[in-house]
Design goal:
A hairpin with a 5-residue loop joins strand 15 and strand 16. The protein has helices at about 5-25, 105, 210-220, 285-295, and strands at about 1-5, 25-30, 35-40, 65, 75-80, 85-95, 100, 110-115, 130-135, 150-155, 165-170, 180-185, 200-210, 230-235, 250-255, 260-265, 275-280. The chain has a six-stranded antiparallel β-barrel with strand order 5-6-7-10-9-8. It has a six-stranded antiparallel beta barrel with strand order 12-13-14-17-16-15. It contains four helices and 17 strands. Bound molecules: arginine (ARG).
Length: about 300
């Protein structure tokens, strides 16, 4: 069975989350005595090109464009072996030679994660294949409650050399989140709601949406979908958005020195009017410090 994780599917995963947390426990961070939720990962199946069987519809409701080979080399495609069976597709980014940043909801019920960095086409042999040996999930993430702190760091079995990691947005880079500014989102997720994943990476330029508008847009969707302005960034418009399978991938400033501003987290459907994509805010202090600490493990 192959599937993409969706915010909607999260509820179904809650029991599994509890099991993972209970069995694996937490590990202690040296600094500041903060606990990092540590998940030991098993050796999973080899990277399986069949993770994607392209639908071939050619549809592109997400509004993105195919990415040429070798562009955005910091991108990672994740094959998540899910507890209880099946494989899920997620995105991620190389943030240092042996750390990949992704979404918590991608890995909370993972038993294994196989990934490729620097690969544009999933069924190709481009880039480097690695296995994640551990996942650190933000200790305040609780998918049973809402989507706050949807962030995790994967530690790789071997470092990736020769690929420049993406940089994390800093507090001084809040200007990158000004409403209307165009940022890129990239991934292998479905090209429309309920569509198929894409074998070739796609990327779309999406406008940042103001916190006030996003809060309003998601106010009536229940506590699970609530938008928290200090912890989340919204971006997208009708016809341009991330979609299922893009989770964990970056919202970023492209260019010669790429900077990651957000992590694909959730939405209501994809690319619908008044439901911008919601991203974990990388430069929110409690999120950025977690990422840096976990990556240093
Ligand atoms: N949760 C989805 C995933 O696991 C990503 C959803 C993003 N949705 C959106 N409309 N931006 O892949």
């Amino acid at each position: 069975m192959r599937r993409a994780l969706s915010a909607m599917a999260l509820a179904a995963l809650l029991a599994a989350v509890a099991v993972v947390a209970g069995v694996q426990g937490t590990a202690r961070a040296e600094a500041r005595g903060v606990r990092l939720h540590h998940i030991a990962l098993q050796r999973g199946p080899a990277f399986d090109p069949a993770l994607v069987h392209a639908g071939g519809s050619g549809s592109q409701i997400v509004g993105g464009k195919p990415v040429p080979n070798g562009k955005y080399p910091f991108m990672a495609v994740l094959q998540v072996g899910v507890r209880g069976g099946g494989e899920a597709l997620c995105g991620g980014t190389l943030i240092d030679p042996d750390s990949v940043l992704t979404a918590a909801h991608c890995v909370v019920d993972a038993r294994s994660v196989t990934l490729a960095v620097g690969r544009t086409v999933i069924t190709s042999r481009q880039g480097r294949v690695r296995r994640a040996v551990a996942a650190y999930v933000h200790p305040r993430y609780d998918g049973a409650r809402d989507n706050r702190y949807d962030v995790a760091v994967l530690k790789l079995d071997r470092p990736v050399r020769g690929i420049k990691p993406i940089r994390l947005s800093t507090a001084a880079q809040n200007y990158l989140e000004r409403p209307g500014r165009l940022l890129m989102v990239a991934g292998w997720g479905t090209t429309r709601e309920n569509g198929s994943p894409s074998d070739r990476m796609r990327a779309a330029a999406v406008p940042v949406v103001s916190d006030a508008a996003a809060k309003r847009d998601y106010a009536h969707e229940g506590p699970q979908a609530r938008f928290f302005p200090t912890l989340m960034v919204a971006a997208g418009r009708r016809g341009r958005d991330a979609c299922q399978g893009d989770s964990g991938g970056p919202l970023f400033k492209a260019g010669r020195d790429p900077v990651e501003v957000g992590i694909v987290s959730y939405g209501i459907g994809c690319a619908r009017a008044h439901y911008p994509g919601v991203y974990t805010e990388v430069n929110s202090p409690g999120i950025r410090s977690f990422i840096v600490r976990a990556a240093a493990r």
